[in-house]
Amino acid sequence: MNDVTWVIVANGERARLFKTQGIALDLQEIDDLVNTEGHGTGLTDKEAEVLDEGERKEKLKAKFAKRVAEYVEQGRLQQKYHRLIIAAEAKFLGMVRADLSEETRRLIFEQVSEDFSELGVDEIQARLRKA
């Protein structure tokens, strides 16, 4: 594994994953995860029955955070990156971090509590350089 950094920009609806050599921020998009569960119920019948709309959205967001964390964990186990930069809406950032192993959390080089997921690559790079 070369000196690869993964950059994750995310919110509860979408997580875009990039890679770059070192910390140069010459981002190449490698994946785009979308929270498709938000379009169906994505919940068990029991959960859908007892939760109000706000609780349902939070539950779906938590499931998506777990999916993102699992993707990042698999990348670490397969030695696809050396360090992480995560930029995500604050609450979602906390959810993802909570689902990461201690080993993976140690690879976090930088974290930004902002949602850049809908920005173009050039704008993401510019904002990360300012952070």
Plain-language structure description:
By secondary structure, the chain is α/β, with parallel strands linked by helices. It has a single domain (4-130), classed as eRF1 domain 2 (Nucleotidyltransferase, domain 5, 2-Layer Sandwich). It is built from five helices and five strands. The protein has helices spanning 45-50, 53-77, 90-99, 102-105, 121-130; strands at residues 4-10, 14-21, 28-34, 83-88, 108-112. Strands 3-2-1-4-5 form a five-stranded mixed beta sheet. β1 (4-10) and β2 (14-21) form a beta hairpin. α2 packs across α3 (90-99). The radius of gyration is 15 Å and the shape is globular. The model has no long low-confidence stretch (mean pLDDT 88).
Question: Could you name the CATH homologous superfamily?
Answer: eRF1 domain 2
Radius of gyration: 15 Å
Terminal CA distance: 27 Å
- Counting DSSP H or I runs of 4 or more residues, the number of helices is 5
Query: What's the architecture, going by CATH?
Result: 2-Layer Sandwich
What is the helix fraction of residues, given as a range?
40-55%
Total strand segments: 5
* Global mean pLDDT: 88
Oligomer status: single chain
Contiguous uncertain segments of 5+ residues: none
Question: What is the CATH topology?
Answer: Nucleotidyltransferase, domain 5
**Which H/E pattern describes the elements?**
EEEHHEHHEH
Overall CATH class:
Alpha Beta
SS-derived structural category: alpha/beta
How many structural domains are formed by the residues? 1
Shape verdict: globular
What is the topology, as strand order, of the major beta sheet?
Answer: 3-2-1-4-5
Question: Percent of residues in beta strands?
Answer: 25-35%
Largest sheet, described in full?
5 strands, mixed
